[in-house]
Design a protein that fits this description.
By secondary structure, the chain is mainly alpha-helical. Helix content is 66%, strand content 0%. It is built from 3 helices and no strands. The protein is elongated, with a radius of gyration of 17 Å. It starts with 11 loop residues before the first helix and ends with a helix.
Length: 56
């Protein structure tokens, strides 16, 4: 769980910016987008196979 505590003389906008950066760093946004729609098991397998082929 990501927690953001207010620093001295920090505005709400600065806190939000820090929070968004932390979420991006943790990969939460990417994960949420990936899970926002159903992906068939065959498509998951195909995507995983393509990813492994690219790395060689």
């Amino acid at each position: 769980m990501i927690k953001v505590k207010a620093r001295a003389n920090e505005s709400v906008q600065q806190m939000m910016k820090r929070f968004k950066k932390m979420c991006e760093k943790e990969g939460l946004i990417k994960d949420i987008k990936k899970r926002s729609y159903y992906e068939k098991p065959s498509e998951k397998r195909r995507r995983r196979d393509r990813k492994t082929q690219r790395s060689f």
